[in-house]
Amino acid sequence: MHKYGTILLLIAFCLAGIAHGSGNNGIPEITYERYSDRVLIVKTGEQYFDKIVAIAAKKGIVVIDTGIAPSLAAEYRKIIEREFGRKDFAYIINTHYHYDHSNGNQAFADAKIIGHERSVEGMKEYANDIKNIIARGRDRVAQWKDQYKTMEPASEQAKRLLDTITSYDFMCDDVEKNFISTPPTITFNDRMKLNLGDITLDLVYFGEGRHTGDDILIHCPEEKILFTGDLFYYASIIISPRLPFDAERWISSLNYVLQDPSTVKYVSDMHNKPMTGTFITLFRDYLVDMQKNLAEAKKQNLLFDEVQKQFAYDKKFTYLEKSEIPIEQLKQQHEVNLRFMWYHLKGVQSAATQLDNEITASGITAALKKFKQMRSAPPDTFYYDERELNLLAYRLLGANQISEALEVFKINVELYPQSWNVYDSLAEAYMKNDQNDLAIKNYRKSLELNPDNTNAVNYLKQLEK
């Protein structure tokens, strides 16, 4: 089943081919490709995408998300019109309110714009804070450019960073000059169905705690596509919730779109590689199994050490290997999920999740203040997990929020001073921030705690030349 789905995707894209748009007026290069006669994918970037998807139906063209910048969206629109030979845009659907999914709405203002009811407020708050957002964006781009100078240009990480720099650099200038707030004109709370003549689109609210509070799934059964916005990431089963965590709603939403699994072959997020329906089905099954098993463990009053043994990856969850994620990666991700879901069920809060929420809402300074308060809270109010904190820090590092990542890595060193890995991770962040003296210091400390750490040995050879 999984192999068939993968082959189907490859055939579809090979038949469609890939064409290139030409950049002008500073607009990043645009590429576009056909998934089918009715579905067109338009994007910029090789490793990190700014992407929208257009569907040509009998009752009009539907566009899923509108990208990071108004002028870029206007170019996307020209390509869609040329490729489909028509201009009857019926609907725009925003998967959530974030600016990299909705800044281009104004380029399609003649269409009806659909989003979850919470998206409207999110977009209004963004518009009211636009000057500060642009200023922070420019600061971040400057940091990324300095970081890029220290990287090997041919590396995948450097290519991804360059894609990010290009998109955000253009976005800051374009939004400052051209942005007009254009929130959804049609909203829904739970589910919505669009009948477009030859195809239907099912819009399903996913639930709180995954990414934002307004994330939706969009299912097109006739084309066997599921659009997930930023809800899922290639090669990751990490639950990574932001509280409140509504697992029952997540399961209900996935059950709804997977009523007939054969209608979900291709899963499109809006920034990364596509996934197959097999991956989403496995994630749903895993979430169901975790909920059921841990609820039973709670009834038995098991301790967490017992839970770890009873619900180890090798005993219960080897079916996840069908996802084609490397086994060691699956084991590590499962351990993080197990700890989070168990303590959440017991009413003990994740320190990493609290920090993540505070960084997102108020920035790193407020998050550090929050951390001090958490440390003085009564026992069993929060739990601290080295892997969760490391994953949070690396996610921030991957998003090029280097100063935020450094502070979280420092917290991990404070909490786990005998762990060689926390020093190794902190050293990596310092190196990416061009603070080589501090990188050397922490790689040496990591090597002192673990003489077999070849990663530290290799980087020290480079840094001490």
Automatic annotation (TrEMBL):
Query: Signal: present as a keyword of the record?
Result: yes
Give the top-rank taxon of the lineage listed in the UniProt record for this protein.
Bacteria
Question: What are the alphabetically sorted keywords of the record?
Answer: Repeat, Signal, TPR repeat
This protein is called Metallo-beta-lactamase domain-containing protein
Q: Which regions does the record annotate with the repeat TPR?
A: 420-453
Report the CDD domains cross-referenced here: metallo-hydrolase-like_MBL-fold
According to the entry, every stretch annotated as the Metallo-beta-lactamase domain falls at 49-271
**Signal peptide start-end:** 1-21
Spell out the Gene3D superfamilies in the cross-references: Ribonuclease Z/Hydroxyacylglutathione hydrolase-like, Tetratricopeptide repeat domain
Cross-referenced Pfam families, in alphabetical order? Answer: Lactamase_B, TPR_2
Q: Which SMART domains match?
A: Lactamase_B, TPR
Note the InterPro entries from the entry: Metallo-B-lactamas, NDM-1-like, RibonucZ/Hydroxyglut_hydro, TPR-like_helical_dom_sf, TPR_2, TPR_rpt
Taxonomic classification, please?
Answer: Bacteria, Candidatus Fischeribacteriota
Which species does this protein come from? Candidatus Fischerbacteria bacterium RBG_13_37_8
